[in-house]
Design goal:
Layout lengths: L2 H15 L4 E10 L9 E5 L4 E3 L5 H11 L9 E5 L3 H6 L7 E9 L5 H9 L4 E6 L5 E5 L7 E2 L3 E6 L4 E5 L3 H12 L3 E5 L3 H6 L6 E4 L3 H8 L5 E5 L4 H12 L5 E4 L3 H11 L6 H5 L14 H17 L27
Parallel strand pairs: 10-11, 10-13, 11-12, 13-14
Antiparallel strand pairs: 1-2, 1-5, 2-3, 4-5, 6-7, 6-9, 8-9
Helix pairs in contact: 1-4, 5-11, 7-8
């Protein structure tokens, strides 16, 4: 799950343990165009404080009003629909006549929030099942790619560890990339065995710096479908080690800096290793969406944008250097020629 959702649960747990009445709102269905997807979470306290979101703001305001009026303070979960009519859609700011359905669940110690958070922090994937008729909650292991299910009687939500990013290289661009990835809730590891780069690195909160060889870092990270890998040293002796491991894994995104020419050379080199053509085809290089980026921070934006597109299943198929320009072997930060 996104760390923002985990933060909602942490806030809910804190409020419960402080003795507050709190309710968890979960988006379970949407029709048309809705501001937030199914699975989005928000917790409301009895005095109207909120954490998280289920819409662009108007639905939250209405739920706060209902909470102040006591309309949501009960012992059992309830269903609430917003935007059932065109008038409601306009009132609550739901675009294109969209509508959404929420489950509002009163929270208590029996809700299993603490156990759920402990499982997430231990890197487990957990299904939380809520019986709307009784409010009974059960937790059980879930498949990594299972999703929200709601049949009108039982709400099943799947919660798991957050996304992770492995960056090879501790230069200027990786610093921007790591900082932006942290803003998007990634846990980041930066790997660089070169002493001169390690000494120049300034610590970033939430970013781990390791001095092992890149293939060892990839093995340590145990790459899975929630992982992204970006090779950024321009040194085949370092980048290729990580890329081989990454392309053999379930990592959802694998990219490498460099010009089209250098990435073509890289793909030819990778053919000499135990990689299939399909695995090599997963490599995104040149890396990043075609934003016309030039400076290191702009290139970092292009990379995190492409990571987001891949994560959300919106593959634009247009990379950073896909415009009609000669292969770049000089000047720009992302195009330093590889040996």
């Amino acid at each position: 799950m996104d760390s923002a959702d985990a933060e909602v649960l942490r806030t809910a747990l804190q409020w419960i343990e402080e003795g507050h009445a709190a309710m968890l709102a979960t988006v379970v269905r949407t029709w048309g165009s809705a501001p937030r997807p199914p699975g989005s979470l928000m917790v409301l306290r009895e005095d109207g404080l909120v954490a998280g979101s289920v819409s662009g703001g108007c639905v939250e305001d209405d739920l706060i009003g209902r909470t102040h009026a006591g309309a949501l303070l009960g012992n059992l979960p309830q269903l609430v629909i917003y935007g059932a009519t065109a008038e409601e859609a306009r009132r609550f700011g739901l675009p294109c006549g969209g509508s959404l359905q929420l489950v509002i669940e009163p929270l208590a110690q029996r809700s299993g929030v603490r156990a759920l958070l402990e499982a997430i922090e231990a890197q487990y994937c957990i299904e939380r099942s809520l019986d709307l008729a009784t409010g009974h909650v059960t937790l059980q292991p879930a498949g990594a790619r299972d999703g929200l299910q709601f049949d009108g009687r039982t709400l099943r939500t799947v919660h798991g560890p957050g996304y992770r990013l492995l960056v090879i290289g501790a230069g200027q661009l990786p610093r921007y990339l790591a900082t932006m990835a942290r803003m998007l809730d990634y846990r980041v590891m930066v790997c660089d065995p070169r002493e001169e780069y390690l000494k120049a690195w300034e610590a970033i909160e939430g970013v781990a710096l390791v001095d092992t060889m890149p293939d060892d870092a990839a093995a340590q990270m145990a790459l899975d479908y929630r992982c992204a890998v970006v090779a950024a040293t321009h040194d085949p002796a370092l980048d290729d080690l990580a890329l081989i491991r990454a392309l053999q894994s379930d990592a959802f995104y694998v990219g490498a800096l460099g010009s089209r020419r250098n990435n073509a050379r890289r793909r030819r080199r990778l053919l000499d290793f135990d990689l299939t053509a399909a695995q090599i085809a997963r490599l995104r290089g040149p890396v990043g969406l075609n934003l016309g980026a030039v400076t290191p921070p702009e290139i970092a934006v292009a990379i995190v944008a492409e990571m987001t597109a891949a994560r959300r299943g919106a593959d634009f198929g247009s990379t950073l250097h896909s415009w009609n320009a000669p292969p770049c072997d000089t000047v720009r930060a992302d195009c330093i020629a590889a040996p």
